[in-house]
């Protein structure tokens, strides 16, 4: 029967090409718009560390004397607190990290120097965040301690400077120091750049910069502090720092600190450890209060920062409303189309077709429109994503259709058109055969 | 026009009537809000910066090595001299930032040294005596800096210049109804006397968080020397911007090659600066515009489709009416009025929906309250759209010949 209905549907669609084109267009445009924006939402709100994120936490203590126990602690740590918590090694892995702008001079003269962002992190960074290596590997904990002049670079920079060859052992000149490359990453594009997320609550929804690419140069934490001394930016300070750019022992917060705790039962113990640390700092007079420590999980921290840009959310809502209008439109057109064939329906019913059969026939027709609309909608989605890739936003390069969203495009298109077709099909199968036959 | 027969006919087509009305309502709700978003973004991106945008470009020069502050200042003054001697350059000034840059130094202004709550936020622009002329700022009270008042400092010193120039917007905020010239304001490092007031100078950030002090700026008579480098704001002679930009970079490198001027954003004309600052606003406005256009088209197509169906269904009745003496005009009016009735129902519901959506967006997306002008414009637009869309099927209906009444009864 399905084959027969399909044949009927094809004939019916061919009979009124303009109306068919209108309906296909409505579905395609609605699906194209909503799938484009939903794909962006899907890509920007995913888990950046699947399988690992629930074990990653962001401990916070509050060294700001102007804050109180009732206030939210500052988004980053001061150097002393970060160093103390990191040195205690009470978690399975822990990493301190800080970003700065550094001048990169390539060893071969002739090319001009460039300013670029640099990440300085302790050795656990790579294992904790599942960072993949193409050549070489991470540095050791000894390298951290001895402030070794080493660095890891991204695949991008390796392509740019060394044409993609194995550059382990080559030398980069960062500001006035030479560092030896010990590792080259595989392409690595976390979304968002989760390890550096902070301050989202002050961004008024303008958070697209959280989706920047990882820094091209990664050095050991203390090495970075030495090499780029004087060029570090605070997140905020409660007093003017005595040496701007050199923030160790400054009244500023500027270090991000992450821990990995594999055993869920030990999370509470670490929480207590952080609270105890703050209490102890209050006891020795370094903190004025210690009751507002926090330890959010990775996803909790991303939520707290509202990482999904408000422009993206707004567009997604609009696109869904848009799809709704397209559907209402399609219901109207289908109603017109089906009821115009009331005579035909009456004839089929008189010849013995059940209501269910008539209903099925028209649902097949709606589904077929949905399928064609889905194909066109998929093309429009590709075009929409291409358009987003041309936009000057940090997440532009992420906008690609993945398999789940590809499948969803068709499921949504066919589902939407079946939904739209249901009411007209019900009306069609209620046609009274006798009246129709009389007026034929 | 008889409304009653139309209403009783519509009662026979509840589903179709409801669908058209619903579509008009939804479209009105979305289009009103989208137009309102467009208007807000466009208004935001056409806010004036207060400077001579057509002739200004900015060079970001960073030093190689870490010159000591005194040395950096000497190098900076040499650079300014080099730039000023170029034929295409009218004037040049060093600063830490410029309007629309997006990044820079914002500070709190107080009126008393022991004040707890700040009086206002403000953007801090470092400047020399050429700042006003280079940016083409209009001095409306007091005087410009004198050359001997210009000092230099690096980030280690406290920000405490003896004199400052402020914008009219800041003056009005701090000293409403009075003249600001001669008054004392407190910056983070100490007191400063206001010696001049300029008409308009936009802040360095146009983001939402800075909107409160968008035009409140303080001009500091200091060259800021940081080892990283500085911005040189250059005003080209009229019409010579294109040639002056590359010439300036070449001259700077020829004079002192130990510097970094990035290829992609080292030299920016002010129109580049403007388009960078408002990229996301412009993108959003264009997207909303496209959505509005497509939505209106879809809605119009839906009305055409359904009305055509009704016309087809009622050919016989139309024929009967024509045979009984109705003119073509009567038939046309019938369908036009029918559409108007449905549209009015739709826009009434849509107006409520538009306001509801706007209220929801106010809470979620930092949006303003919908202005009634947009609602009215939207209502008018949709009523016209409905009438326009129904015209073709209605004309077809009016051409149904009276003889139709006699066929296949």
Automatic annotation (TrEMBL), chain A:
<feature type="transmembrane region" description="Helical">
    <location>
        <begin position="403"/>
        <end position="426"/>
    </location>
</feature>
<feature type="domain" description="ABC3 transporter permease C-terminal">
    <location>
        <begin position="318"/>
        <end position="431"/>
    </location>
</feature>
<dbReference type="GO" id="GO:0005524">
    <property type="term" value="F:ATP binding"/>
</dbReference>
<dbReference type="InterPro" id="IPR025857">
    <property type="entry name" value="MacB_PCD"/>
</dbReference>
<protein>
    <submittedName>
        <fullName>ABC transporter ATP-binding protein</fullName>
    </submittedName>
</protein>
<dbReference type="Pfam" id="PF12704">
    <property type="entry name" value="MacB_PCD"/>
</dbReference>
<dbReference type="InterPro" id="IPR003838">
    <property type="entry name" value="ABC3_permease_C"/>
</dbReference>
<dbReference type="InterPro" id="IPR050250">
    <property type="entry name" value="Macrolide_Exporter_MacB"/>
</dbReference>
<keyword id="KW-1133">Transmembrane helix</keyword>
<keyword id="KW-1003">Cell membrane</keyword>
<feature type="transmembrane region" description="Helical">
    <location>
        <begin position="368"/>
        <end position="388"/>
    </location>
</feature>
<keyword id="KW-0067">ATP-binding</keyword>
<keyword id="KW-0547">Nucleotide-binding</keyword>
<dbReference type="GO" id="GO:0005886">
    <property type="term" value="C:plasma membrane"/>
</dbReference>
<keyword id="KW-0472">Membrane</keyword>
<dbReference type="Pfam" id="PF02687">
    <property type="entry name" value="FtsX"/>
</dbReference>
<feature type="domain" description="MacB-like periplasmic core">
    <location>
        <begin position="20"/>
        <end position="199"/>
    </location>
</feature>
<dbReference type="GO" id="GO:0022857">
    <property type="term" value="F:transmembrane transporter activity"/>
</dbReference>
<feature type="transmembrane region" description="Helical">
    <location>
        <begin position="316"/>
        <end position="339"/>
    </location>
</feature>
<keyword id="KW-0812">Transmembrane</keyword>
<feature type="transmembrane region" description="Helical">
    <location>
        <begin position="21"/>
        <end position="44"/>
    </location>
</feature>
TrEMBL record, chain B:
<dbReference type="InterPro" id="IPR025857">
    <property type="entry name" value="MacB_PCD"/>
</dbReference>
<protein>
    <submittedName>
        <fullName>Peptide ABC transporter permease</fullName>
    </submittedName>
</protein>
<dbReference type="Pfam" id="PF02687">
    <property type="entry name" value="FtsX"/>
</dbReference>
<keyword id="KW-1133">Transmembrane helix</keyword>
<feature type="transmembrane region" description="Helical">
    <location>
        <begin position="373"/>
        <end position="395"/>
    </location>
</feature>
<feature type="domain" description="ABC3 transporter permease C-terminal">
    <location>
        <begin position="290"/>
        <end position="402"/>
    </location>
</feature>
<feature type="transmembrane region" description="Helical">
    <location>
        <begin position="15"/>
        <end position="38"/>
    </location>
</feature>
<dbReference type="GO" id="GO:0022857">
    <property type="term" value="F:transmembrane transporter activity"/>
</dbReference>
<dbReference type="GO" id="GO:0005886">
    <property type="term" value="C:plasma membrane"/>
</dbReference>
<feature type="transmembrane region" description="Helical">
    <location>
        <begin position="284"/>
        <end position="311"/>
    </location>
</feature>
<dbReference type="InterPro" id="IPR003838">
    <property type="entry name" value="ABC3_permease_C"/>
</dbReference>
<dbReference type="InterPro" id="IPR050250">
    <property type="entry name" value="Macrolide_Exporter_MacB"/>
</dbReference>
<feature type="domain" description="MacB-like periplasmic core">
    <location>
        <begin position="51"/>
        <end position="251"/>
    </location>
</feature>
<keyword id="KW-1003">Cell membrane</keyword>
<comment type="similarity">
    <text>Belongs to the ABC-4 integral membrane protein family.</text>
</comment>
<keyword id="KW-0472">Membrane</keyword>
<dbReference type="Pfam" id="PF12704">
    <property type="entry name" value="MacB_PCD"/>
</dbReference>
<feature type="transmembrane region" description="Helical">
    <location>
        <begin position="340"/>
        <end position="361"/>
    </location>
</feature>
<keyword id="KW-0812">Transmembrane</keyword>
